[in-house]
């Protein structure tokens, strides 16, 4: 299979990144510091991720707002140009076809940001233009993100959470949004191809900032209790089951999948997404059955070792109704591991 390459791939090679396939792209899994080291750097200082594999579908022109408002679950009228919004695009059965961040760039210009493997599907449902390959996306994340980047580009360091704006760097127009996927403060930068590699390398020369790969990005989002499409969201999973009812504006006249979701809301859900913490350091793995009183009551959708809690953590769906205060356990190769229900996030970062 031919893999798409990030416009930053040569910089990754220069910094000895381990490159792997992800969503049809060749992307950095980790750097010499390692996944746990990169994870802790993000929690305590600042890291930069290449997330250029994420899609960008530009919807612009007259009627753009009305189109997106009629298709996506959240209410775009709650924000305005220069703001961002997390939302869902549903299938007719109410399943989450994709979870999306919308950057409202200008009055009639929206950048819709799907997950990497879902860009074509989202494009087919909402229209617009796929501009993914016209830019790189660099996520700068961590409690010191603003402090460390203040000398690199002061305007970037001042962007408020969930807002977006454009700035100049060496003559390039860089679009920045106060968004991220780690539970930490920070922002994401859309940089034109012509200067993307130079921008990334200059950023990595900022003292105290280190590159991080998608391995750390996944453990960070898991600690933050954030869902991943294909795991906690996707076919057969609705926003209500995933605990994301706040993403759905039932007051809107319409959105894709509304009828099915209203029906589920009225009837009640039969499964719910929960967090679990292990009694040991052993990582929990996707696909493990969640047991209670010798009965299988659910399945792990994402699991790993938490570098900050130093325990295994997991997200998983369990059947409802269920007693969340009782002990749960996992069983593998005849060995039982106790796990307990945990409120999310598992670890609270610098995002407030």
Fill in the keyword field for this structure:
alpha+beta, 352 residues, Alpha-Beta Plaits, six-stranded mixed β-sheet, 21% helix, 20 strands
Structure description:
The protein is an alpha+beta fold and 352 residues long. Among the domains are: 4-55 and 132-223, 2-Layer Sandwich (Gyrase A, domain 2), CATH 3.30.1360.120; 57-127 and 238-267, Aminomethyltransferase beta-barrel domains (Alpha-Beta Plaits), CATH 3.30.70.1400. The chain has nine helices and 20 strands. It has helices spanning 9-14, 35-44, 64-71, 119-126, 145-149, 154-157, 193-204, 214-223, 258-267; strands at 4-5, 18-22, 25-30, 46-50, 57-60, 84-90, 96-106, 109-113, 129-130, 135-141, 164-169, 172-177, 186-192, 209-212, 271-278, 289-292, 295-306, 311-319, 328-332, 335-342. The strands form four sheets. It has a six-stranded mixed sheet, with helices on both faces. The mean pLDDT is 96.
**What is the number of beta strands?**
20
Kindly report the spatial arrangement of strands forming the biggest sheet.
11-12-13-10-4-14
What structural class is derived from the secondary structure elements?
A: alpha+beta
The SSE string, one letter per element, is EHEEHEEHEEEHEEHHEEEHEHHEEEEEE
Largest sheet: 6 strands, mixed
Quick rundown:
The chain is an alpha+beta fold and 352 residues long.
Task: Summarize the SSE layout with pairings.
Layout: E1 4-5, H1 9-14, E2 18-22, E3 25-30, H2 35-44, E4 46-50, E5 57-60, H3 64-71, E6 84-90, E7 96-106, E8 109-113, H4 119-126, E9 129-130, E10 135-141, H5 145-149, H6 154-157, E11 164-169, E12 172-177, E13 186-192, H7 193-204, E14 209-212, H8 214-223, H9 258-267, E15 271-278, E16 289-292, E17 295-306, E18 311-319, E19 328-332, E20 335-342
Parallel strand pairs: 1-3, 4-14
Antiparallel strand pairs: 2-3, 4-10, 5-8, 5-9, 6-7, 7-8, 10-13, 11-12, 12-13, 15-18, 15-20, 16-17, 16-19, 17-18, 19-20
Helix pairs in contact: 2-8
